[in-house]
Amino acid sequence: MDPKLGRMMLKEWVAIESDSVQPVPRFRRELFRMMAVAADTLQRLGARVTSVDMGSQQLPDGQSLPIPPVILAELGNDPTKGTVCFYGHLDVQPADQGDGWLTDPYVLTEVDGKLYGRGATDNKGPVLAWINAVSAFRALEQDLPVNIKFIIEGMEEAGSVALEELVEKEKNRFFSGVDYIVISDNLWISQRKPAITYGTRGNSYFTVEVKCRDQDFHSGTFGGILHEPMADLVALLGSLVDSSGHILVPGIYDEVAPLTEEEINTYKAIHLDLEEYRNSSRVEKFLFDTKEEILMHLWRYPSLSIHGIEGAFDEPGAKTVIPGQVIGKFSIRLVPHMNVSVVEKQVTRHLEDVFSTRNSSNKMVVSMTLGLHPWIANINDTQYLAAKRAIRTVFGTEPDMIRDGSTIPIAKMFQEIVHKSVVLIPLGAVDDGEHSQNEKINRWNYIEGTKLFAAFFLEMAQLH
Amino acid sequence: MDPKLGRMMLKEWVAIESDSVQPVPRFRRELFRMMAVAADTLQRLGARVTSVDMGSQQLPDGQSLPIPPVILAELGNDPTKGTVCFYGHLDVQPADQGDGWLTDPYVLTEVDGKLYGRGATDNKGPVLAWINAVSAFRALEQDLPVNIKFIIEGMEEAGSVALEELVEKEKNRFFSGVDYIVISDNLWISQRKPAITYGTRGNSYFTVEVKCRDQDFHSGTFGGILHEPMADLVALLGSLVDSSGHILVPGIYDEVAPLTEEEINTYKAIHLDLEEYRNSSRVEKFLFDTKEEILMHLWRYPSLSIHGIEGAFDEPGAKTVIPGQVIGKFSIRLVPHMNVSVVEKQVTRHLEDVFSTRNSSNKMVVSMTLGLHPWIANINDTQYLAAKRAIRTVFGTEPDMIRDGSTIPIAKMFQEIVHKSVVLIPLGAVDDGEHSQNEKINRWNYIEGTKLFAAFFLEMAQLH
């Protein structure tokens, strides 16, 4: 595999503005183009490719948008070999150069060995690393040590719309011969030391709308006599979490798995230079001072983040407006053994309680717009051992055995529907900045990651 | 004056996107075009017109933008006549059709006798009504009963940048012969009954910035270990005002003028159908149940409105972001005898106190970006009596003697610098919706307002 060719392909894929978060036709067209380019790449690799029509999506405002196809691809079906299925996604988070990107987010730009671009690490780079690994065997005219399947979607950042139904339907067809499922959609917790991930948090995303009327007011003409929606909303959002990060929704910690001595020991075994982590994150001070507390609050305790407000004044300058209708957005990261529906009820009841104390004449509506389960795996499965050996071969070190604070709901979904072992083998460094401005993947990670996947194929062949 | 021509001119003026709030070159160019068109109109009316270069404006981000010229115009200088100076502004608040406008905000559109368009009532319509009144005398080949001066600016919505310096400089030149100053930049408090305004609230506009770093975070990767700026900001904004509209900043009510029996009687004399007002405002319920309380909380008590947040997620959809740096915006409407600098200190100290209780590692910066004084006049001045008579002539009724909850800082400024009587003669109906979506002026108000100004000229000639 020629590294130059690998970078060219990443450049081509990053250039496609496959934003699945902003529900507008322009980005949907880009998503369809992205999936077509990927299908073509896999076909040229010799895979049998099916692009599954996913129908369309009804948005809350009544608009209907087509869902990009999911790619199912198969390469080899030798019954004496194991079959590994790789999951990836090719949609990305929104990116706008005005938000603080130093380079055009849709033009892959190399600076000091870092490849900047939206989707570079989440998740176009890792998908291409897997494809590059397969290409390497092809280029060397070697047989693939394993049968390989791909399931590639274009709606991950929007909650993998309709994917679960497809996996359910393909459970006894596409997935029937699959032994192992590999996902590479998260990051290491270090800049240089690789990791294997055996658990992720879930996520429940809420909107709370407060409405006086569907038109704004002038703050001179109406200020002083209204129950202002922003005052209500700020009070509602302010009731969710305290300044130490503790969630104030009653009952929210009831189902969180109790902490055992054994579990604490796994955190102690992980190398994490807190000072370096804090510096690379460019954060003045974290909420906690020890490595163990930091890891536990990222992995095994829930967290609540307030994302923003829709409908209020959000531009530079000074507009003297009383917004008539505002929508607050926040989400709770869920951990084993929290239940999405229970959390939905707890949050709704809490906000209703807080709102009722205000005697506001406004209307409040709480909605959970996404509900994604947490996931945790058995780290003694064959492919966990194979991945460890491959890491030893390529990087000469033991991996960090980690969990991820982010939500990779398909991990949990695959385990529940397909009942096969799922492993997460991240390629990106801790400072890659997925979901934020100046997302990047290091050139080194992209190349070594390609080697890691190739070594993993060989180890799987031995262990199977 | 032909009503058709009057409407054509309003259409032409509304079509110019003279937004002074959004500090971008495109809108600045439109502002310059707007001022040139107005200068040309006044010249064709026979006025001696000067367009005063106002230099440029330094923005907080370092950017420099040119300020549109102020028009000073004079029509007649007969020493036996009184001289009335009319102030108006031709800049507008931001308007975007996506925000809920039913028609293009920059295309004047008549529906059921209502002329919809940004600036139709605030303040392009009233400026044109004054010009139309002068044109009427010209068309009838009658001498103007008074000498007329115009001062027209293009930065009112952005705080009348640099206007005060100009008025100070012109105090003994342009303003030396001026006897009375008329402003028409507010609204009636009824749909059909005219009003004269003798006081306005001031405004102090604040930003409170909370910063962790200049880049956003992914809520999966960092949620649980950060002092999140949005949590800090929501707590800060939530500490400002309670659910009954009472401002919680310590000391803020200390300088508010005490309420007298006589003042209460002026509110009692005003006709205000609360039910109709509530319906036309499309508000379910106000904070207060009596006419007197409503009027007092709009005119003689301060109010605090939260306008929005810059830097957070403000679009449709679900983005799992922890904003790294957010700016909350709110303002306090000031009343006699509150002092802008005292309020600035009180608000800053209060926010610093609240922030310090949070032990947050983020940085907080409070700034007062606008500080505009409240204003109150003597309602026994000659021109108040002339305006009352003109209203009786044109509308056959006594005006409501009102104050305005909005800020018209130049009223206070003219009184302080020029030391001449200032009156506000609004033309627009209570439901015109200045500063909000679907701003309009009624065709009837625009035409009768033109007549009112003509009758006012005649009354002034008699009383002077």
Describe this structure in words.
- Two copies of one chain form a homodimer.
- The first copy, chain A, is an alpha+beta fold and 464 residues long.
- Chain A folds into two domains: 3-201 and 374-463, Zn peptidases (Aminopeptidase), CATH 3.40.630.10; 202-257 and 300-372, Alpha-Beta Plaits, CATH 3.30.70.360.
- Chain A contains 13 helices and 20 strands.
- Chain A has helices at residues 3-14, 25-44, 120-139, 163-170, 219-222, 229-238, 261-269, 274-281, 291-299, 340-356, 382-395, 409-417, 443-463, and strands at 48-52, 56-58, 64-66, 70-75, 83-89, 109-111, 114-116, 147-153, 180-183, 195-200, 202-211, 217-218, 303-310, 321-322, 325-334, 363-372, 375-376, 400-404, 421-424, 440-442.
- Chain A has a six-stranded mixed β-sheet with strand order 1-4-8-5-9-19, sandwiched between helices. Chain A has a four-stranded antiparallel β-sheet with strand order 13-15-11-16.
- In chain A, strand 6 and strand 7 (114-116) form a beta hairpin.
- In chain A, helix 1 (3-14) runs antiparallel to helix 3 (120-139).
- The radius of gyration of chain A is 23 Å and the shape is globular.
- The mean pLDDT of chain A is 94.
- Chains A and B meet through strand 12, helix 5, helix 6, helix 9 and strand 13 of A and strand 12, helix 5, helix 6, helix 9 and strand 13 of B.
- Chains A, B: Homodimer.
- Chains A, B: Its cofactor is Mn(2+).
- Chains A, B: It holds the Pfam family Peptidase_M20.
